[in-house]
Write a structure and sequence with these properties.
6-stranded mixed sheet, 9 helices, globular, binds adenosine-5'-triphosphate, nucleotide-binding
């Protein structure tokens, strides 16, 4: 069964149609990679799934339920967790406090449970040595880890990752991919927008390529990367 299904979702800003009738289904346990040129509408698609932005038309179904009218916090509590392209922690709070806050408010966990979750997520994401540091002072890698950790603390069934490897060194990106592999092995469904293609290819079960707000290609990673339209639009390779 699909955990997430988008049915003809569209969004415009003024005359600009940023999402144009996108339909998409993601199976439980699947890792879907999203690719597309800058400005193609990838983050907007996440905003429509998480509820940060409302659709103009179409429907968003999650776990068999129509969530199109739900607010972001309701979708989060239903199990849709997300990271943001630009990490957005509470900078003056410690890493641990950020995670407890995410678990309490995003995951609706009681205080004791939230503390337990925060400990687990610190361990899982390698942030334990930084638990008591203010989030605002972290390195880029650790800010990215915290972004992932905050989403995990809400105990998502569906995890939306927006360019989590962007700006990292090769070594840092591969550490992050190892963490994502462990998350995937726990059965969490993931949708990952990423320009670091080799990182994405090392974990994605399927790719979905967007251009001008529309689906350009979808399917098995190797087949999609060989697709002529994808090579022309995304990689600038002449067909
Ligand atoms: N709130 C907004 N108001 C007006 N235009 C917007 C808004 N949000 C996004 N856009 C425009 O919609 C288009 C798609 O933006 P979006 O951030 O979804 O693209 P993207 O594929 O994620 O790009 P990138 O790879 O650069 O992150 C862009 O032209 C952007 O300027």
């Amino acid at each position: 069964m699909s955990l997430l299904a988008l049915h003809g979702v569209s969004k415009s800003y003024g005359a600009l149609r940023v999402t144009d009738g996108v339909s998409l289904a993601v199976a439980e346990g699947e890792t879907l990679g999203i690719l597309g040129p800058n400005g193609a509408g990838k983050t907007t698609l996440f905003n429509l799934i998480s509820g940060d932005v409302r659709v103009d038309a179409g429907r968003v179904e999650y776990a068999g339920r129509d969530v199109t009218a739900l607010a972001p916090h309701q979708r989060c509590r239903a199990g849709i967790g997300r990271s943001y392209q630009v990490p957005q922690p509470f900078g003056a709070m410690t890493v641990f406090e950020n995670l407890v806050t995410a678990a309490c408010f995003g995951g609706r966990q009681a205080e004791r449970e939230a503390w337990h979750t925060a400990q687990e997520v610190l361990q899982e994401t390698g942030l334990m040595p930084h638990a008591n540091k203010p989030a605002g002072g972290l390195t880029l890698l650790n800010r990215k880890r915290l972004e992932l950790a905050r989403a995990l603390a809400t105990r998502p069934k569906l995890l939306l990752l927006d360019e989590i490897a962007g700006g990292l060194t090769e070594h840092e990106a591969s550490e992050l991919v190892s963490e994502l592999r462990r998350i995937k092995a726990r059965g969490i469904t993931m949708i990952w927008i990423e320009h670091v293609v080799h990182a994405l290819l090392s974990i994605a079960d399927r790719l979905f390529v967007i251009d001008f707000g529309r689906k350009l290609a979808e399917g098995a990673p190797q087949a999609v990367m060989q697709d002529e339209a994808v090579r022309r639009v995304y990689m600038g390779v002449e067909a």
